[in-house]
Design goal:
Layout: H1 13-17, H2 23-50, H3 55-72, E1 80-81, H4 87-97, H5 99-118, H6 130-147, H7 149-153, H8 164-173, H9 180-200, H10 202-213, H11 218-232, H12 236-250, H13 258-262, H14 279-284, H15 286-311, H16 318-331, E2 341-342, H17 344-352, H18 359-375, H19 384-398, H20 402-405, H21 412-427, H22 430-452, E3 454-461, E4 464-473, H23 482-489, E5 496-507, H24 509-524, E6 528-532, H25 536-545, E7 552-554, E8 566-567
Parallel strand pairs: 4-5, 5-6, 6-7
Antiparallel strand pairs: 1-2, 3-4, 3-8
Helix pairs in contact: 2-3, 2-12, 2-17, 2-18, 2-19, 3-16, 3-18, 4-5, 5-15, 5-16, 6-19, 6-21, 9-10, 9-12, 9-19, 10-11, 15-16, 15-17, 21-22, 23-24
Length: about 575
């Protein structure tokens, strides 16, 4: 009786981290959590607004999902919350199915992620070709940037379409409504975020700041140097958000803000709401559910791998991480949230700020909670053009644009896979891009494996011909034995066909059927099929099929050659 596969052990990384926890680590985690919590605030609002939701949807997603993943996840430093990759997906689901069905699809995706983790499927995500991930990520970055052009330019568009061509049509037909004040704020935000690390960090701090200090007295130089270090610790998005919002408010610039569009951010805890659920509706949400789950799994596990590489902490446990991500996505919709996953920008910020355990993720959620409860009314003055500038910067950093310059170094298969996934993501649909990309990857893999299979003629004499098979004889390679079949069919008399299978690595049902066809053809003309050097998996497959009972087999090498070996396919 077959046994069921064992389920993954539920063991949150937080339990292991607390075993040897110290006051020093607590202080580091608190500092990192405060930093990443402040960084997460503008991003969470921007992601929600860009997705077609209210800003508080993104904030509460960051609070709840961040706390759940930090408490139950398999990574020591990963920060979860709304991600830029989900903007286009969420916007498309809202347009096609409505808000209630978005919540249902997110919860169903959470269940699917939990099931994937419990069944130990976390490692399967690593088998997705990196070229698909690059093409998909770059395509999403382009779509995120396009989706922000409306607010970045201050265009008077009532509602942006979800499709690529519809968005461009809306932008071009409304260019006459361009708001130069909004464009100025958006550009200032984007350029400021690009320059901020160079001005206050690393070489920038030692170059610009040190050059300014040379002419100052030592005491003033020391004070300014200390101030520079303090400023360098302030996240760029917060600087842009506060300074440009204050500028727009002081000058009374005629730009759209969170307050004018949404009436501000609700102050207080969200209300628990259960979306109307029916199996008929759920059956129509299969594609959105699979897209959210698949993208969430890829994003979170890739982010966890990045965290492993830069933190030096014990490697994450992928199945535990998927179960935690699944639980977060299952519960967040009941608070009006949106899909959540691990986020690279916030996780890297967490690591570089000194995080050593999931406690930093809990502090990040607590920081956001305090901001919402104490300072929510101030958010109504934030211009949407500034948030669009933040997302433009996120899209710029999200894309791996250098890979386009490296296309010449790619194989034709890899280049086709990346460009195909990128084009389908941008022009058509994310779900179509994922499905087509994986199908194309499988087709190209089969073609590649088939090309590695070789057939070599090793001997030819009256009444006998010998061939050597190298590689895997499977459905993608059986066509290479057609010349062998033609040789048997055109022989003037009985022919002994000898196949040397010592280098045959594997054999599938299609290969087995071809061998049976060679046997029938040879026997039908008074000859026979003889196998040489049969071993390993190929022998086991033939034994199970009963083919060895009717074939002649030998252990020795192919008999005397009638000439030099020559490849025929």
């Amino acid at each position: 009786m077959p046994t069921l596969p064992s389920l993954a052990r539920f063991r949150p990384r937080l339990l292991d981290a607390l075993k040897s926890y110290s006051r020093e680590r607590l202080l580091r985690d608190v500092g990192a959590g405060l930093t990443v919590g402040i960084v997460a605030l503008p991003l969470a609002m921007a992601f929600a607004i860009a997705s077609g939701l209210k800003p508080e949807a993104g904030i509460w997603t960051a609070i709840v999902a961040g706390a759940i993943v930090a408490t139950l996840g398999g990574s020591a430093v990963q920060i979860a919350g709304p991600a830029g990759a989900f903007i286009v997906i969420v916007y498309g689901i809202l347009e096609r199915y409505g808000p209630a069905n978005l919540l249902i699809a997110t919860s169903l995706a959470g269940l699917l992620l939990m099931l994937m983790g419990a069944l130990r499927l976390g490692t399967l995500v690593r088998y997705v070709p990196v070229t698909i991930v690059i093409g998909f990520t770059n395509g999403i970055a382009v779509l995120v940037a396009i989706s922000q052009l409306k607010d970045f330019l201050g265009l008077a568009v009532t509602k942006m379409p979800a499709d690529f061509f519809g968005q461009w049509h809306s932008i071009f037909t409304h260019l006459h409504t361009l708001n130069l004040h909004a464009l100025g704020l958006g550009l200032a935000c984007f350029v400021g975020l690009l320059l901020w690390p160079r001005l206050v960090g690393g070489a920038g701090r030692q170059g610009l700041a040190q050059g300014m200090l040379r002419a100052l007295p030592s005491l003033e130089a020391l004070q300014l140097h200390h101030a520079t270090r303090v400023v360098a610790g302030v996240p760029g998005p917060i600087v842009a958000l506060l300074s440009l919002s204050l500028l727009a408010w002081a000058l009374k610039l005629p730009v759209e803000t969170i307050g004018t569009r949404f009436g501000g951010i609700a102050q207080g805890l969200p209300t628990l709401a259960l979306p109307a659920f029916s199996w008929e509706t759920a059956s129509q949400l299969l594609a959105p559910t699979l897209t959210i789950a698949f993208l969430g799994a890829i994003e979170s596990l890739l982010c966890a791998r990045v965290a492993d590489q830069i933190s030096g902490l014990p490697r994450h446990e992928p199945n535990q991480e998927l179960m935690a991500q699944g639980l977060a996505n299952l519960l967040v919709p009941f608070l009006g949230g949106m899909p959540a996953t691990g986020t690279v920008a916030r996780t890297v910020t967490n690591v570089r700020a000194g995080a050593s355990s999931p406690v930093a993720g809990l502090v990040h959620s607590a920081t956001l909670l305090l901001i919402v409860l104490l300072a929510a009314p101030l958010a109504m003055h934030v211009p949407l053009a500034v948030l669009a500038g933040v997302l433009m910067y996120v899209a710029w950093n999200m894309g791996e644009w250098h890979e386009f310059r490296r296309l010449k170094a790619y194989s034709r298969h890899s280049a086709l896979l990346m460009l195909g996934t990128f084009t389908l993501t941008v022009v058509f649909d994310l779900t179509v891009a994922l499905q087509a990309g994986l199908i194309l990857a499988c087709v190209l893999f089969v073609q590649r494996m088939g090309s590695l299979f070789r057939v070599t003629e090793t001997a030819r004499q009256p009444g006998q011909v010998s061939y050597s098979l190298h590689g895997s004889l499977f459905f993608g390679a059986v066509g290479k034995l057609d010349p062998v079949l033609s040789t048997v069919e055109s022989a003037p008399g009985p022919l002994t066909l000898q196949l040397d299978l010592a280098d045959l690595q594997s054999l599938d049902r299609s290969g087995l059927e071809l061998l049976e066809q060679l046997q029938r053809t040879a026997q039908g003309r008074g000859g026979r099929l003889e196998l040489v050097g049969l071993q390993g998996e190929a022998m086991a497959v033939m034994q199970r099929a009963g083919l060895l009972d009717t074939l002649g087999t030998r252990d020795g090498p192919t008999q005397a050659s009638g000439g030099a070996a020559r490849p025929i396919a």
